[in-house]
Amino acid sequence: MECKVTWSGPEGMSFIAQTGSGHLVAMDGAPDGGGNNLAPRPMEMVLLGTGGCTAYDVVLILKRGRQDVRGCSVKLQAERADADPKVFTKINFHFTVTGKGLDPAKVERAIELSHEKYCSASIMLAKTAEITHTSEIVEG
Question: Is 37 in contact with 28 (CB distance < 8 Å)?
Fold first, then answer.
């Protein structure tokens, strides 16, 4: 896996990232840090990627477990250290899983498996952050 990140120029702190799969993603800094607030911050991208990684796992595990999953979202709320390096210190993942007749124990197990075994991003972040999760099931 590889990617390339290129600074957009001296007028700010915007960057364009190109993924190994050929996709482009813009990133920018906050105005008080020289950015123009035109795109997500790099650390927001870390959080977004972690949410995508774990949601992917949960859906895949539930599908493989023959659960009728029809939707999955995860809201991440994070706290960062006050001093540099401003690593994440706490992250809560709140999953909302929608489906027909979902087994709550299987949903909980899918979330646990993601965080303990499959989601590389959340496992890495757990080295500096206290990881917690909550979940709700919506019938539909």
Answer: yes
